[in-house]
Amino acid sequence: MQRRFFVGGNWKMNGSLHNIDEIIGFLTCGPLNPDVEVVVAAPALYIDYASKKLPPTVAISAQNCYKEEKGAFTGEISPAMLKDVGCRWVILGHSERRTIFEESDELIAEKCAHAVENGVSIIACIGEQLEERENDLTETVVFRQTKAIVEKISCLEYWDKIVLAYEPVWAIGTGKTATPEQAQDVHKKLRKWLNDNVCPDVAKSVRIIYGGSVNEKNCRELAKKEDIDGFLVGGASLKPEFLKIVNATAGM
């Protein structure tokens, strides 16, 4: 089954109106491979501003949202609010949310389910710490995190709104990158897990993207791997080199 290549840019807590105008400038100038789905995640304050200025081929995403529609949850935003300002994507479960803000597998799964049930597509992040990899626990951790999400997704049709992002925590922002072979190994095993625990159709169709210090130098080799369906890019998404990552599959 042909899966459309997907590249997400996570701006994290970076940017100003001036910076965002610069990013939008190089995204508008391109070129951007039309066969690639491109989504950028702005800080919440800038979602509405960025969405109105981005080229029509680039979608806007939030970096987080909560598991309720509304209520006394100071500082949170809901999928309903995102939709209200034209935002149809959200990143959930990023390692920085799991570690710094101590979000549990259960909470992340609940947020994933609420988002897709309310019409917002998700980039659901999973991945192991360095100590876990060194202790041969990569599969245990990744499968546990995925299982929590799977158990909350009540309808197979919702998987059309889910992109899984494998992000080994030890490779995020460190300059270290999993080798193409290491990344492919995890992606392939995760796809088999989905085949055995969700259904073959979901395993074949769901996009599993890689994140962890992806840059213009390593993106093409990673993109050649059969089960790597794109990237979630951090710091490089703030720079013009992001275009080269979006175009990593050009000519393949």
TrEMBL record:
Pathway: Carbohydrate degradation; glycolysis; D-glyceraldehyde 3-phosphate from glycerone phosphate: step 1/1; Carbohydrate biosynthesis; gluconeogenesis
Biological processes per GO annotation: gluconeogenesis; glyceraldehyde-3-phosphate biosynthetic process; glycerol catabolic process; glycolytic process
Keywords, in A-Z order: Gluconeogenesis, Glycolysis, Isomerase
Protein EC: 5.3.1.1
Swiss-Prot/TrEMBL catalytic activity: D-glyceraldehyde 3-phosphate = dihydroxyacetone phosphate
Name of the top EC class for this enzyme: isomerase
Alphabetized Gene3D superfamilies for the sequence: Aldolase class I (3.20.20.70)
Family to which the UniProt record says this protein belongs: Belongs to the triosephosphate isomerase family.
SUPFAM superfamilies associated with the record: Triosephosphate isomerase (TIM)
UniProt organism field: Gryllus longicercus
PANTHER family the record matches: TRIOSEPHOSPHATE ISOMERASE (PTHR21139)
Keyword flag Isomerase: yes
GO function term, MF aspect, one: triose-phosphate isomerase activity
CDD domains reported for this sequence: TIM
Source species, domain of life: Eukaryota
GO cellular component terms, semicolon-separated: cytosol
Quaternary structure annotation from Swiss-Prot or TrEMBL: Homodimer.
Protein name: Triosephosphate isomerase
